[in-house]
Input
Amino acid sequence: MNADKQLDAKGLACPMPIVRTKQAIDELASGQILEVQATDKGARNDLAAWANSTGHKLLESREENGILTFWIQKK
Amino acid sequence: MDNNPQTLPVNMTPDELGRIITRQEKLFVLDVRNETEFKDWKIEGQALEIINIPYFDLLDSVEPALKRIPEGERLLVVCAKEGSSRFIAERIAEAGRSEVHYLEGGMKRWGELLVPVKAGDLKSGGEIYQFNRLGKGCLSYMIVSEGEAVVVDAARMVQPYIDFARERGIRIQHIVDTHLHADHISGGRELAGRTGASYFLPPQDADEVVFSYLPLTEGRDLRIGHTDVRPMYSPGHTLGSTTLLVDDRYLLTGDILFVASIGRPDLAGKAEDWVGDLRNTLYGLYSGLPEELIVLPAHFGTVAEMDRTGAVSAKLGDLYRQNPGLKLEDEQTFRQTVTEQLPPQPHAYREIRQTNMGKISPDEETQREMETGPNRCAVHD
Output
């Protein structure tokens, strides 16, 4: 999936993956897509819940070799 | 008061939280995990007030939390592992609140805390201790007589039993699991390995077990010091479920009978087959036992079951008057209750059973994750 911006949050523990994701989303325009990579397993449910709570759209998430990748579209 | 005091949140250890809960002290808890995790499993205490606001809804401002947190009360912020609760606790302290704490190690460590309390005396001068796993509602036991002990339904974390015994000069002689557990990983085998004690399991539950054990069977009493521990075959939660009668006074009912509920027969995948067994045990075997027996179960459902000392127990006769699971005289109603109206099954219960049989050996971190959440071994949630 094509992303407008990429964020590397690998190795960061909660709450930092979400803190960084929020900062990165703030810099995007509506409709643009952010790709986030993280390794903290807690990020999976929290990112989905955060997107749900803020109205941004979690388009897809994937886990490969312990790396979680998320694509989020700004509302 | 200083001008502009630079307040910082203070860590609260799981031990301290355990003391607060067993003493029924007041505490306000802000749980900052996501809503799903909170709904699934949370800290419970009789004098505890708890609210849930996910940390990601407090990143811009903690104002929504401040509005709901009473001033001047001790506050504990909680998350899954610690990081997010510490982050939010710092913001709350910066906003001028005092007595702000965060839970060291989060829910993960909370789920592993064992709090030993004395559950009763034995005729010969010994004692029976209940190890309360407050975060999960699991109860295990150490029965002590003349410096010898038997440990029953040990939790995965075995160090607390070893330390407890060492501090009191007690030798752990025997370890018993009343059944093959599906809600938590048994520490029985590891504890046996580390103490040299013998490990007993009901053979009907141990068909697929891949390590050696001694059979826990009726007619073969265990003796420690001056105390007899008498196994009574009481199937229903599992095919092998076995009750222990200690000192002719205490009835360790495992996952068959709890204070406010009864065991569920479905965690080994055979609810239909075992309904009859469960009914025979509860309405046959147990109902013929003396009313004065003190029931010591392997779980509690809510903190309301704990007395002032933190112990969970009840007289068998009282349970026949109060426990809803013992008032299902009609066979059809009983069958429906224990097969159709069950709460969700515990997380990873199949993998937990495989681990307890020795068939798989997940690493410690995986074992911890498998056990996350409430125990859910009872028919009533």
Notes: Chain A has a mean pLDDT of 94. Residues 33 and 75 of chain A are 10 Å apart (CA to CA).
